[in-house]
Amino acid sequence: MTEFITELMNDYAEISYLISILVNVLISLFAFIPSVFITAANIYVFGFWEGLILSLVGEVLGSVISLILYRKGIEFLTREKEITHPIYKKLLTTTGVEAFLLIVSLRLLPFVPSGLVNIGASFSKVSVTTFGIATLIGKIPAVLIEAMAVSQYMKWQGEEKVYFTLVALILVLIYFLVKRKRGI
């Protein structure tokens, strides 16, 4: 996927920034696709710092657009239904500083998918501005760590890359197996 995005941005260099941001928005809308692919493409095409900043802008913009669209969908689906689940009721009343701190905290946690934060926030009454600022603050360390990991991975050659990829896949598999066994 990274290769396809990289080729697309290289082939259409004059709109490569727009392509990057659009891909990031689409990744945010689909909620559970990892952003590492577009981060890798951004670093490869634009270099570390420019790629990092572009990834950060794309992720924040994608999260804000997702929030707005998810809210419209939730509003449509729950128009005539009363929400009774306690977690959803709590989210519906979360605003201001409490919502801001909750969003920043969730963005800082490495294993909380960004899509879940976007979906959860869409049930709250947090303003789009507060959500955007909290997302920016929370995403800075996450995108920086992701960019550093991707940059280092791209520097590795041959066996290093194969071993790291195998270890990463095994760890992901173990994570999902443990999660499934615990019923999380």
TrEMBL record:
Domain VTT: start-end pairs: 33-151
Domain of life: Bacteria
UniProt keywords, alphabetically: Cell membrane, Membrane, Transmembrane, Transmembrane helix
Membrane-spanning intervals of the chain: 21-46, 52-70, 91-109, 129-150, 162-178
Cell location: Cell membrane
Membrane-related topology note: Multi-pass membrane protein
Signal peptide, first to last residue: none
A GO term from the CC aspect: plasma membrane
Family: Belongs to the TVP38/TMEM64 family.
Name of the protein: TVP38/TMEM64 family membrane protein
Organism: Bacillus mesophilus
